[in-house]
Specification:
Elements lengths: L1 H24 L5 H18 L9 H24 L13 H33 L4 H10 L12 H13 L9 H17 L4 H18 L4 H23 L10 H24 L12 H9 L14 E2 L5 E2 L5 H30 L5 H15 L11 H33 L1
């Protein structure tokens, strides 16, 4: 009885927060709106599925309710304080700089396309196999990164170039063929490494950037892309997860169970973590990036695998994803988790307030944070994603600010010599 009341309370509370977030912002990518919408939809589906998953405890549902509320109030704090954008000279950006940036972006895209065979050779040699299944198994279970690898960052560079192309979706002077080519390049290289989510991430970034620029959802584009995401994810399961070939029992029911396990299972699995925290290792800590960096620079540290242990979520499936609460709760407890989520609400809303076509750094930070918020039902992506975020900032500064400065400086020197 009490559990039923709490479920209804969560539904009504989340509906109210989602509605209020929309009324305040009138934006599809306002972080509290995105966060509350994702959790509202996913938990409502879990409740409607009845006994398919193990029942969530009262404590878990309450934590999820307060998570939505704290994130909302964090965003509201930013709207109330209205912090100004950081005043950094390098942020000053002109149309002439953008033209130069786009010229060199095309050159980097061509370089990424050329590097595809080299990347395939690199990961095949690492795994000692040319099978995608064997390569994924090696990268997930056996691979230990040694130092900083140029080849390992090629898919990341391709993904960053794709995001830069998405910023030009409404630029009629930038050919869409480059967007398509680098998008396919990023998907292929991420697939080479056995990533099922790489394809999904690329398509979702397309949707997020498009909605951010236009502030509207085009259903004629959104629905086909959603179908492509689902189809691509199923294809990834088919070719990567099923070692030894396609099982004859891999039918529509199996597909439904696996999809439900991937996208909803973490919410159910975290219930076990909340009630039995001593059984789970904090291997996805908020400070993991710093430990990994220390290890890559030659430091001696006992770094556990980032992959968590498996937990049953029903009588058919298990999962090793536990939502972003897994990271916060095992580090700083339930109360600390809520205040961390409140901070993230304020922090991500800051970038939303200042998102602008003419400020690539803010634009890319905002879109990547929105993607991270969507994946909170799956795992933590903001603290654990510090590494790719730093690479994105470096790439953005290099492409949009340093390259034009270097280009103009060299051009000026050559002109002076000719005189």
């Amino acid at each position: 009885m009490i559990l039923g009341i709490v479920k209804i309370t969560f539904f009504l509370c989340s509906c109210f927060v989602t509605y209020l977030s929309w009324k305040i912002s009138r934006s599809w990518t306002y972080p509290p709106f995105v966060y509350s919408s994702v959790w509202l939809v996913c938990l409502t589906i879990i409740f409607m599925m009845g006994d398919y998953f193990y029942q969530l405890s009262l404590a878990s549902i309450l934590l999820y309710v307060f998570g939505v509320l704290f994130f909302f109030f964090g965003g509201l704090t930013t709207l109330y304080l209205k912090p100004k954008i950081l005043s950094i000279p390098i942020i000053i950006y002109s149309d002439s700089q953008r033209k130069l940036s786009l010229f060199y972006l095309k050159a980097i895209i061509i370089l990424c396309l050329i590097m595809m065979p080299a990347y395939w050779s690199y990961i095949s040699n690492l795994a000692g196999s040319s099978s995608l299944v064997n390569i994924r198994y090696f990268l997930v279970n056996d691979y230990q990164a040694q130092g900083i690898s140029f080849y390992a960052n090629i898919p990341i560079l391709a993904s960053l170039c794709f995001t830069a192309c998405l910023l030009e979706l409404q630029n009629k002077n930038f050919s869409k063929i480059y967007t398509v080519l680098i998008g396919m390049c990023a998907i292929i290289m991420l697939s080479m490494s056995g990533s099922k989510m790489g394809f999904v991430t690329i398509i979702m970034m397309w949707i997020i950037c498009s909605v951010t620029l236009s502030n509207k959802i085009n259903l004629k584009t959104f629905i086909p892309l959603l179908i492509i995401i689902i189809a691509g994810f199923i294809a990834g399961l088919w070719f990567i997860n099923l070692r030894g070939g396609v099982d004859s029992d891999f039918d529509l029911i199996s597909i439904f169970r696996i999809i439900a396990s991937y996208f909803l299972g973490g919410i159910v699995a975290f219930d076990q973590v909340l009630n039995n925290p001593d059984l789970y290792a904090a291997n996805q800590s908020m400070i993991r990036f710093f430990i990994e960096t220390y290890a890559k620079l030659g430091g001696e540290v006992d770094l556990a695998s980032i992959n968590a242990q498996y937990t049953n979520i029903n009588e058919y499936e298990n999962t090793n994803t536990y939502t972003h609460f897994y990271t916060y709760f095992l580090d700083i407890g339930a109360i600390g988790s809520l205040f961390t989520i409140m901070f993230l609400g304020a922090f991500t809303s800051y970038f939303w307030m200042h998102v602008n076509y003419k400020n690539p750094i803010i634009f890319f930070m905002h879109t990547s944070f929105i993607l991270s918020l969507i994946f909170t039902i799956y795992s933590e992506k903001i603290f654990l994603g510090i590494n790719p975020t730093i690479k994105m900032i470096i790439f953005t500064i290099f492409l949009y600010y340093l390259i034009p400065i270097i280009h103009n400086s060299v051009k000026s020197l050559l002109s002076d010599k000719n005189l």
